[in-house]
Write a structure and sequence with these properties.
Elements: E1 18-22, E2 31-39, E3 42-50, E4 55-63, E5 67-74, E6 81-89, E7 92-100
Antiparallel strand pairs: 1-2, 2-5, 3-4, 3-6, 6-7
């Protein structure tokens, strides 16, 4: 028999965005740090969503080039509870569960 080879096919392996958040849980520092790396140019929408589905914080970030960015998000006005951080951009979505431990102190 004879061997027939198919044409060479190319595949593209996407460099997915790396997402890290700290501290988690967010305590007395009242700031959630969101670090995104391997960002490709584009617009990213960042939302903090409560367990009831309410968006309590929204940020839009425009990446001009492949980069790493750290975004501090104030949680001082957000009640304690469990939330989901959702990031949408460039046809990708990322999410991380977040716990905020804001406590009111009455003296």
């Amino acid at each position: 028999g004879a061997f027939v080879y198919s044409a060479v096919k190319q595949i593209e392996i996407l460099n997915l965005v790396n997402l890290s958040v700290y501290p988690n849980p967010v305590g007395s520092e009242k700031v959630l740090n969101v670090k995104l790396s391997k960002l490709v140019p584009g617009t990213y929408k960042i939302s903090l969503v409560s367990s009831s589905g309410q968006s309590v914080k929204k940020i839009t970030y425009k990446a001009a080039g492949t980069s790493t960015v750290s975004l501090p998000i104030s949680t001082a006005s957000i009640p304690g509870g469990t939330y989901v951080l959702i990031i949408n951009g460039n046809n990708q979505q990322f999410s991380k569960p977040i716990v905020i431990e804001n406590k009111s102190h009455f003296f």
